[in-house]
Structure formats: structure tokens, C-alpha cells
Design goal:
Elements lengths: L3 E6 L10 H13 L2 E5 L14 H13 L5 E4 L15 H6 L4 E3 L4 H11 L3 E3 L3 H7 L2 H12 L15 E4 L1 E11 H4 L15 E6 L8 H13 L4 H4 E7 L9 H9 L8 E5 L10 E3 L2 E6 L5 E5 L3
Parallel strand pairs: 1-2, 1-3, 3-4, 4-5, 7-8, 8-9, 9-10
Antiparallel strand pairs: 5-11, 6-10, 7-12, 12-13
Length: 305
């Protein structure tokens, strides 16, 4: 019986020699979980802006989806330039060869573009480098359960972390989003999500704008909500935990949100996705139900047909 294979590609930052120990650990973790790891042929090539050419990165992307022996595709790392391959992707190949694409941060662009262009479900979860560097058991379990489709997707706060509820309620919609500084790069492109249908927005931010992280989060989110139908169709908001180095408080984030969002939708902060460990894997493009109940527990469940 053929082993499941995950293809590692570098649509954003390229292979780093000082991270090779992390890559080896990540490969071992996949092997132990029953997966075979293969790499795009251009993954180790370097060039300008910590990456190789968009053409080479797109070749690896297209080949990963076109290879019938590849069951899932994972980004090596994040960075800044994954949006430069969007027009070089062979979208017919991707559409005709559905398989999970995994990553977060800069890979947000590709997760939502694939979901929009092909209606496939993508996975906002750890990068290959994340797995090798600092992934904990909960992060690994969430990833492998999502890849193996062993269970209906479910999210609940980890014991180690505390989730902050801004507004209670229930909602249903298509899950979109990711890193807000990357997600808003899709504005004005044909790969931007359709805001005319009910959706739930999952957003998180990194610390690269510190000490201006909160201001950047505010204006990037506002630019998303200014898109046609974006406010009207919004059913709920899930916010990933901010990095401690961003020095952003829940009170500050809540203040930003209360000035932008309807008062009748569920809003939750400090969730375990994005630039944080533990990191849950979320299904981008899936129709989900969220329930913020009286006990302040949060469940995100794949909608049953």
C-alpha cells in the first residue's frame, strides 16, 4: 500500500541552512505519523528577497498539485512574496487535482485564493518549519487529524490558554481569512473571497509592525470590511492570539472591534491559531458553525450536509 505523501514547497521564503535541524525534526514527525515527505525541486534555491523567482516557485506549486502521488502540500515557511505567484498558477491543474494546502502567515494569500478559485478546502495551520521548531502535541494532533480527516473538525480552547469572549452568540458561514496583513493583499484581485455570501472571518496579526501592531491591525481590518458586502455578510469574528512581542492587549483589540462590527454577532479573541503555539488547524473555505455559549466555550464544527 502506497504511503501518504506530503510535498513541501517554498512559495514564500526559501530553504535556510540554519534551519536544517528543524526541517529534519519536522520530517521525522511526519514519518512517525505515517507520511512520506518529498520536496519541490526549487525549494532550496535562493535569490532576491530571501526567495527564488516567482516562476520557479510557481513550477513547484503546479507540480505538487499535478502529481498523483502527492496527497497534501505544505509551505516550508512564511515570508512576504507568495502573492507574486498567483497569476503563474495553473488553476486548471489545481481545480482538477484537489488536495489540502497547509500554511499560515504569508501563505494566507494562497489558502484563500485556492479556496476562491477552486472551491477547495485549504488548511490554515503550521508550516513545515513550525513543526520542526516548536510544535506541541496539540498542534500536531490538530494538523494530522485535519490531514487524515479522522474526525469532524472541532475547536475548543486549550487548557493552557484562556479565550476572551467579546460577544456571545451562534453563527454559520464560510470560514475565510488568516493573517490580516496578508489577507488584505487579495483586495482588487480575482482571487479575493466572495463577500456576498455569509462568512465567518478568522484573523490574526504578527508582530512585525511593533510598536504599531494595533494601528496596522485596525486599518488592515477596516480595509477588508470596506469591500462590497463585507460588513453586511459578516456572521462572526475569530481573532487569533497576538504575539507577546506585539504588546497588544485584549482590551485594545476589543475596542478596535466594537467600533467596526455589528453588536449581534459572536466575537472571540485569543484563539489558538496564527502566530502562536498551540496552533489549531482551521479549514479555510469550509462552511462552519460557531457557538459561543453561556459557559464561554467555543466550538467550531464542520457543517454536516
Amino acid at each position: 500500500m502506497r504511503k501518504k505523501t506530503i510535498r513541501i514547497i517554498a512559495p514564500s521564503s526559501c530553504w535556510k541552512k540554519d534551519n536544517e535541524a528543524n526541517y529534519k525534526r519536522a520530517e521525522k514527525l511526519f514519518t512517525n505519523a505515517g507520511w512520506q515527505v518529498t520536496y519541490g525541486k526549487n525549494t532550496k534555491k535562493t535569490g532576491f528577497l530571501d526567495t527564488t523567482s516567482a516562476q520557479m516557485r510557481a513550477i513547484d506549486f503546479n507540480e505538487a498539485f499535478n502529481d498523483n502521488n502527492v496527497d497534501a502540500v505544505m509551505a516550508l515557511d512564511g515570508g512576504y512574496s507568495s502573492n507574486s505567484i498567483l497569476d503563474l498558477i495553473d488553476w486548471d491543474i489545481v481545480k482538477n487535482n484537489p488536495k489540502p494546502l497547509v500554511g499560515y502567515s504569508d501563505i494566507t494569500v494562497l489558502l484563500n485564493a485556492v479556496s476562491t478559485a477552486t472551491k477547495q478546502i485549504t488548511l490554515m495551520g503550521p508550516m513545515f518549519s513550525t513543526i520542526g521548531k516548536n510544535a506541541d502535541r496539540r498542534t500536531l494532533d490538530s494538523l494530522f487529524n485535519s490531514l487524515d480527516k479522522k474526525m469532524t473538525f472541532q475547536y475548543s480552547p486549550s487548557i493552557e490558554t484562556i479565550t476572551t469572549v467579546v460577544q456571545k452568540g451562534q453563527a454559520k458561514g464560510r470560514l475565510i481569512g488568516g493573517n490580516v496583513g496578508s489577507f488584505y493583499l487579495l483586495q482588487g484581485t480575482k482571487y479575493a473571497p466572495d463577500f456576498s455570501e455569509p462568512y465567518i472571518l478568522a484573523i490574526e496579526e504578527d508582530d512585525e509592525a511593533a510598536p504599531n501592531t494595533l494601528a496596522e491591525f485596525d486599518r488592515r481590518l477596516e480595509s477588508i470590511l470596506q469591500q462590497k458586502y463585507a460588513r453586511k455578510s459578516l456572521q462572526g469574528v475569530l481573532v487569533g492570539r497576538f504575539e507577546p512581542t506585539a504588546k497588544v492587549t485584549n482590551e485594545q483589540v476589543a475596542k478596535v472591534l466594537e467600533n467596526k462590527l455589528p453588536k449581534n454577532i459572536p466575537i472571540v479573541l485569543d484563539m489558538d491559531f496564527g502566530h502562536t503555539i498551540p496552533m489549531a488547524t482551521l479549514p479555510i473555505g469550509e462552511t462552519v458553525c460557531i457557538d459561543v455559549d453561556v459557559n464561554l466555550s467555543i466550538v467550531v464544527i464542520k457543517d454536516k450536509p
